[in-house]
């Protein structure tokens, strides 16, 4: 089995071989293949611009891998700003000895994920570091998108607005945790990792302008809701029974003492819309596989400014606190 | 049977709340011994469902909260030794000793591993034959069988580089100490869930007899806790005082006898163990038997382990909270100088700690935090 060697990051013939033989082969497009020092782009109007580095362990998990995450993550950051994703850059930091076969399968899933939103990698970089320098593979992606829906902001929330979550929450975090800790649970849980441009584009096309839009990545649903409550100085009232959580995720949370609302997601977004738009929003989202479990979970309220109030199914209430510190399992 | 939804059924919880409201005739202070119950009570907003005359008092049952600072200093000293990998469970790595926490020491370069299962120690030891893996064992009777099982496997597989620093503690002794102290105003107990799975409900019978205080062994779900409170209310109404077992799906009177035998093979009671905030309690913790002294990190590393007891910060009232004499929000540093991100007292460190549970879940109904 072929493994990545230090020489393939040295800038010489071996590096060119890796770039042309693997990256260009799968990421092929006119701008990239010009191999200039910088890509020349034509973008109209206001743009969204974002970057993210991906360092997940394990690199492969149920329903995805680090490559799919690196594309979906940056695409979604652009989409959440109301932008159509156009161009990405991509840097690979590869540990010496990494299996070429695994790298290719990661690259292939990146290609597949890019096809879903039509985004292109137009510039890149490859570094190979000595063994131990990185944990297998790190990927950085930076993206540019053309803003097609202006004014989406965490500061827009007002009493009466509605809150929607686009999918079950916590699947990615639970999936990674189960794999990382070798819990060997009998379950069919998959990451929610997905690019969200298609459903969001369909919302825009249907005339729905989300007031706020955020993918619930690290910190999960809880972090997004708390950030919005804080930014808009409003209270958010959400119903625990309305928030979709997979049974497997509930099980893992009970086993280890976590909250599904704090687990990371990689293809689940939270939307704030006008109350009158709830049904239409849900009917659009339900047409797409990645958002078919979208649910209305609560409303923006006048009291408890800066706080998220969770109503339990039996009628008691508590604040949903933002996640803090490392996720550590309970021992009792 | 769905072991989660079945015991979170809203109609069932509401019906139990209605019965408790109808039948509760006198004030009751109920101590939940176990931190897992504190967490459940606060997370599910149970106090909001009960009549005001039923109050919860939080007990000493969080293995992280009751760990005295000098034992954490032991962990820090062990983790600082050349060639040592220190492995422990969960929240333990965040508890501050007198010179920082394991988390801060890890950031400075010490090899400290937070485990999900003690058996992971075997893998770490095999992958690092040139290092000594010290398992800093913590927990009540719940986690002790896993440590005993690890001892058994280390011996059976003849693994030369694993040592144990044993901090396993017991439930009945501190409960007796709190009741015998005479300060605590406790009418009844919720008996721990997971501990009782191992020990059986029989361990509470002497306490019920000695202090005339009912104990109901309760599961961790909202239906479990509500049903157990109703059982306590009914004991008082009917003039009974006994150990009752609500958590019959997991707990028997005798408990897990093979786990108990495994524990007895390798561990014995210490003469005394110092509990954070409570003080020395005779026979309240376990240690390795002398036959396994070669696996005992306290003996192997005796020369480098600090021995002086260290008291809590004077503003911290964790001791009073652990004895059921105060609520977290009565502490003047709660939610101000002492927060989960910068805990001064141990009750704020662990997610099972009373202060952490009040901080995270209790702000909606309790005063004391901005």
TrEMBL record, chain A:
Residues in PurM-like C-terminal domain copies: 158-310
Superkingdom per UniProt: Bacteria
Signal peptide coordinates: none
Xref: NCBIfam families: hypE (TIGR02124)
PANTHER family cross-referenced by the UniProt entry: CARBAMOYL DEHYDRATASE HYPE, HYDROGENASE ISOENZYMES FORMATION PROTEIN HYPE
Similarity field: Belongs to the HypE family.
Protein name (database record): Hydrogenase expression/formation protein HypE
High-level lineage: Bacteria, Pseudomonadati, Campylobacterota, Epsilonproteobacteria, Campylobacterales
UniProtKB/TrEMBL annotation, chain B:
Keywords: Iron, Metal-binding
Entry's transmembrane regions: none
Domain of life: Bacteria
Gene3D superfamilies per the UniProt record, alphabetical: 6.10.20.100, HypD, alpha/beta domain 1
PANTHER family noted in UniProt: HYDROGENASE MATURATION FACTOR HYPD (PTHR30149:SF0), HYDROGENASE PROTEIN ASSEMBLY PROTEIN HYPD (PTHR30149)
Membership in a protein family: Belongs to the HypD family.
Protein name, entry field: Hydrogenase formation protein HypD
Organism in which the protein naturally occurs: Sulfurospirillum tamanense
Gene: hypD
